[in-house]
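Re: the pair you flagged

First of the two:
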Amino acid sequence: MNEAIKQQILAKIEAYETIIVCRHIRPDGDAVGSTMGFTRVLRDTYPDKKILLVNDDYAEYLAFCGGEDAASEKDYDGALLIAIDTGTRKRISNKNYALAKEIIKIDHHIEADPYGDVNWVEDFRSSACEMIADFCRTFQEQLKISREAATYIYMGMVTDSGRFRFEGVTGETLRLAAFLLDFGVDYESLFAHLYTEKPETLQFKSYVYGHIQITKNGVAYLYADKAMQEKFALSFEDACAIVGEMDSIRGSLIWVAFIDNEAEGNIRVRLRSRFLGINDIAKRHHGGGHDMAAGATAFSKEEVRAIIDEADALLGEYKKTHGDAI
């Protein structure tokens, strides 16, 4: 798919001496895995080029993946910038991205902002890492793919697909995962980093289960206010992850987490669903993403209430025609 665009991207990579890779703000496993994995592939394949991984923030829970690079404004002069897993310009975690000579966008979100000189967008993909794996497989004779690079890319495929459970997972997804596994992915150590939890985290989850609220039509939601975050010493990433604790409630086809974001003076919103799309709600509230996994931002308790009410109304209409689905 999009063979011409992939050829164009490879040609750009080969033409530039300096390449800067970046991702979206508040990164998840897909953003980190795709950028770190692709950077590793490029460095191994083109050892004489300057390949930099430069972002303005990081995810504490993914610190085991390693560090990133620093760059001066001069590094952007005549450089190629590759932004991965970043749907819009405002979410690029690199304040100097526009200084680059050319930009390549590689993304799997619904197209909202075609900002690149080259845009490779496939919104049917389960992850950006799936696209990077596809690129590596397409050019496997030209590229050097190490076990380390394959492990990073596999991590993003696993995390963004919910261990291959979410919408968008296809036979091609699993074929690309198998392609990566053949490079010796250390999945046992990877899963230990990703899925083992501290006792304090389990205590927090117990608290979460006791405080989930459910609307009339079945929307499950939870508000992680400042007091909760301080009580359990949660990082912002830890607090955002609570949305995953509501994904198995029977009858709750939409679940939402609201997280106080004191640093930015707003409320981070994470929306998830099964069977019906919630991206339109996110777009109405300063956000977006995928049909069944999106993010938004609320700026008041009234807007929080509005999001809950909109989700409840949407789920109510769905259940009128589909019954009380699981």
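Second of the two:
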Amino acid sequence: MPDQPELTLLARLRVWGAPYLIAVRDFLGDITDDMPLLTRIASHVGLILLMMVTIAASGIQINLNGEKGTVNTAPPSDDEITLPDPAPEDTAAFFRSPIPVTNAPKRVRRDVIKYTVQGGDNVSSIAEDFEVSADSILWANGKLEDNPDMLSVGQALNIPPVSGVLHTVAAGDTLKSIAEKYRGKKTADAIIQNIVNLEFNQERHDFKDGAINLTAGQYLMVPGGSKPYQPRVVSAYSGPLPATAARGTGNFGWPVSGRITQKFWTRHPGIDVGAPTGTPIYAADSGYIVQSGWSNVGYGNMILINHGNGYLTRYGHLSKLNVEIGESVKKGQLIGRVGSTGNSTGPHLHFEIIRGGTHRNPFGLLPGR
């Protein structure tokens, strides 16, 4: 038999690899014919890729220098600080810079505001809205100073820039005389310093070069100042009470159901209870009706009850009166209905308790709310 020619290297590789190529061809053919298998393989590959992305995003470092397959999750030591790698430029859209938040300082008003009273307003609510004390509102509006209930819808009020006394400079006034008048429990020097430091005053008077020249007719704000209080003198009914007149026990009950809209304070000698027009009003204690009718001092329709034990109770701004002068009433008896008569900005009951000519805080004599 003649000698076989020796195969080249390439031919040998072809002969050696032929069975494997055929196996791969058959395998690929089976995959294409079996789509569910292809789907399973694709899902496994996708799951592996997702795990790799998650590991990369979590910041877990693979200890390439240690034993294979271990994960280095130990936190850095106290003297070792690991800083995050800077984000590449093309990922800037995913890492936005924080938006700075600036807390602007409160801006102090530098003028006297004219405010028109709206329905439902009272001195306390207006003061709260403008962040000044209620006394400051009264001191800046003389007609209200003795009776905050004289407030009426449409009335124009002066609102001072800060809490204190808004004084109109008169001829002959000096900084010292004004400070002495309104210093209250503070020292005159402290009040003077407050006056001089306030920009509101600096814009209206000449405080240059240490000289203090006041301009007559201009406002001067006294920050932290206090106007001397002149107590209001009231005259209780002193006529004789019939022997058969009902007398109170001194244990008062709430005269109406509603919401407290203004509390008792120095310039407001009672409490205001807001309620819808027509809400029933009851006698807070048994007594004798000494006044039932129109009041010319801002209360509108008003009832005054003498309880025969030194106490009087007043009910103001009523829409309807259900009792007349000379009647005896029992505690809890219907005497009228809520309204907004007289100087009132909305339906409410103004309620006072008076003893010996002195107004008492009703909250101290009424049962707990």
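The longest helix spans residues 9-33.

-B.
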